[in-house]
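Contributing new records

If you add data, match the layout below exactly. Sequence lines come first and carry their own label; structure lines follow with theirs. Keep one chain per record. Anything else will be rejected by the validation script.
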Amino acid sequence: MGFENAAYRDYFTKNWDRHLATMQNFLRQPCIPSDGVGCRESAELLMEYYRALGCQEVTLLETPTGNPGVFAYLDSGAEQTLINYCMLDTKPAYPDGWDADPFAAEIVDKPPYGKVILARGAQGRKAPYISWLNALEAVKAIEGKLPLNIIFLAESEENLGSPNYKSFFEKYKDRLATASFAFCPGAVQSASGQVKITQGYKGLINVRFTCSGKLWGKGPQNKATHAMAHSLIESPTWRLVCAMASMKDPVTERILVKDFYADDQPVSDAERAAAQRLVDGFPGKHWKEFLPGVGTDVKSANDGLSNVDATLKYWYSPSFNINGLASGFTGPGTEVFRLPNEAWCQCDIRIPRGYSAKNTIERIQRHLVENGFADIEMKVTAAYEPYQTALDSKLLKSFTDILDEENIPWTVWPFVGGGGPWSLFAELGMPVVFDAGIGFGAGAGAVNEFLAVEKSANYAGILEAELFFAEFIKRLGA
């Protein structure tokens, strides 16, 4: 059976130029919250797409940061509703090293993959999102209406840790709670054609710790003073370093916060077997080569772990990372002989299944107080729980059944190290799938990011991805 359908292929073929132009226009609009570039313009462009799709409600969601989100609702008169998460933003992209302007969205020849769209966001969910919208348009045009109502809830700050998405969720929580599923499209085929199915994500907590002379009652109060004063005047920077150092063993890397590991769950035989099945799909490779986000330009005391043990640790162990730490002069050049009045560090804490973001935050706050650091400000900018969607849920079954019918190979990842605001929907008791779809691309967030335009013997092209999404939404709504 699969996704091949003559009426749909004809529709996508006739509308190919228009659909491709929409994808390119979306990619040409930068949305980089870290640089303060294009977030509002991107949200307004997305609103145009939602209106063109026939959404009866389309609303711009303002935020304190000035990087808006979008709410939209498409009422199809259906019994069930799907939540569609969308991230508009990408990581920055600078021309150096690219084969073409990263925001020109040019179609170029890239051996051995043939024609590709070269652009920031091409593989990292912007281009696949347009394929998804094109598929929804096609189903409406051919069937008369969609088989599901859709709530669209988009943000432009995922790469900042989604600091405002919880407020969007709370604003529409009563309506979101009526949905049966939540989904975010992607293009996750490998060059060999394998599709990655991600069941779950770790919980994610974003925290900013700040020590200031004013909060502490010691050190410079309103501005930095000269370093020669340090023999008499205390340093907020050193105090922050000491506070952070109190939370991690420098040798074992164990987190020293009391009860931090209280919710640890032992790895089950089924989880170990799942890890073994996964690593068997990467013969001859070291875990650094296939675990997302790791890379080979790293060294660790864990280098000697087997692929299975490293994978299990990656899935089921928590982490407490410092993303950045700053104090004093941070502009061009170096200003010497300063005793800064403030220091801060930005952290991300990732927690596996069984853990609670709420409990983890409370334990860290208690650690600071009990260890004499009550003055350290701990600002939680985002907190999202871990979750996992069952393989036999209708959401995932609708997806994997099509893959099986088309003889497209797929691999299950029970968890990955990432996490984000889409887990909020799981808290409402519904299955959630993030970043799923066929089609091949590479380099998301890196130089020369691309999405293959044409299919190969192994992987789908853009048109086939749209056929897949159309069949998926029909089955999900059946």
